[in-house]
Amino acid sequence: MTQQNTAFEEQFGGIPAVWLRFGSFEAAVIPSVGANLVAFRDTEKGYSYLREPDQDQMDEFMAAPAVYGIPILSPPNRYEDGRFPWNGKVYQLPINEPATGNHLHGFLHDVAWTVEGFGSNDLESYVTLSQNIGEGHAFYKYLPFTFSVTLRYSLSSHGLQQQLIVNNTGTEYMPNLFAFHTAIKVPFTPDSQSSDYTAKVTIGQRRELNERSLPTGQFQPLTPEEEQLKQAGVSPFFAAMDNHYTAEPQNGRNYMELTDHRTGDKLVYDVGTSYKHWMIWNNNACNEFFCPEPQMNLVNAPNVEGISAEESGLVGLQPGELYEQTSRLYPIAAQK
């Protein structure tokens, strides 16, 4: 029986959350931990598409929210020695990855977000969350720009839509760098194994990374498995991956497609073409989840020379300007 379309507040693992239901779909967002969308499910089929923290993993989730659900990263990934040159100035970010001496993942994925509203109707169930960055905010302490970020998640017959809006409310040209460390559960069906799955991602070239996980400026040839990854698909666990790729949209779309060959079901993650880079991380080929991460900018982009801002994704917003991008996670049922 299809459940009623609704949006409501209820806990997830003991933490206040906003739940969305539409048809057979269900999703949960935790506002207090980075507006992380920790669950996206098909309740009729018993499918769970994201890596969710179990009830007994909530402490682990609180300690490392970036490896569950859909966390938002800004500025994303790594910055060498915490240096962030921008528009004639050099800002210093905290070094929070001692092993590499880099800054990692920015300031939005673990802070509390404001719930602007939630609701449902015949077309969708939705929640809107916001972050206002200014004096007193952790982001502003290191990158003193004034802006707002709005995340809107909605469930409909077309699956889960994510809308990101950034508004430069200040007086200076500001960096506009975002990514999503999306953790996809493999298998997402209850009776399949990870070996039943192949993934396709619209990657282009692979960037060489040094021992500090920073781009060297060189490209590496794709392995045969990586060629399969961008074409017909390959196991997302063919090797341990923490790899940085250019995005190369196919047929006008920039996406990941995960197929369960036992059931014939697919999950599509269509991310929009302004994400010009993919990070793919599979936690040492763990056979439980992998992260196809759409990323606007090249890792360490402000410190990389000899590449255009358009290619590196080192883009910004003038005062009053808006940036918007939508992404969608949706299933394709097995063809009968």
TrEMBL record:
InterPro entries membership: Aldose_1/G6P_1-epimerase (IPR008183), Gal_mutarotase_sf_dom (IPR011013), GH-type_carb-bd (IPR014718)
GO BP term, pick one: carbohydrate metabolic process
Gene Ontology MF annotations: carbohydrate binding; isomerase activity
Pfam families on file: Aldose_epim
Highest taxon, organism lineage: Bacteria
SUPFAM superfamilies the UniProt entry points to: Galactose mutarotase-like
Name the record gives this protein: Aldose 1-epimerase
Source species of the chain: Paenibacillus polysaccharolyticus
